Amino acid sequence: AADMVNTVSHNYAKESLKPEYGDGLEDALRARGDRYIGIINGIDTALWDPAHDATLAAPYDGTDLSPKGRTKADLMARYGLDPEGPLLGVIGRLDPQKGFDLVAGAAPDLVAMGARLIVLGTGHPELVAGLRALAQEHPDRIAVLERFDRDEARRIYAGSDLFLMPSRFEPCGQGQLIAMRYATPPVVRRSGGLADTVIDADLDPEAGNGFVFEPASAEALSEAVRRALAAMDDPTRFRAIQANGMARDHSWRVPAAEYQAAYARALGARAG
Prior knowledge:
The chain is built from twelve helices and eight strands. By secondary structure, the protein is an alpha/beta fold.
């Protein structure tokens, strides 16, 4: 009965026309034709602003990222993590839909690479238990924070070197947008809005703002992290990746205009 239908990213609009994503609605969505569209989410750029974020040990902006290192040191000191290594952050609902099982499966490999891992969220008890056991084996490499904590989320977005978001499906997601706003390149699975917003820095060195992998496997996630850590070994290159992420317009300005246009089309269709 709808005059227009939208979902929260261009890529997810395409994916949801397939049975594995449409959940029984794919035929109805397909019947809408070009009146079924995707509009990417934005974020509140005043709320998520590393230059004016009072929770950070050292706020920063794109002109000088050196305070980000102090924010990282503060975060790692809070949880007794060894500061001499890259820090990978994970925030969200800890369940297979969000790819948390991939994080849990890849964690031993990530530790072997020399990475530190900080995870914030609640979810699947067995997965959390497995990662908690690994954290007990490596208390200076892995921290698991089983809670919802807005302030700590901000410190993780800002203090991490890389942000892991390996979702099995993700209509749009905002975590990757917030991470880029905080100069933390995301490592994501090519799914939904993640595919629309994250450009692989190895495939597109000029515009790359993160790292993307395809198969929903711990091995693929580990390989993407390996590539990201290799980029970190080249500070000039990594700084360019961070700059690309921060330069993106993360606000609701463009999506709001697209919503206005969609509503105008709906009104026009009804008037016709």
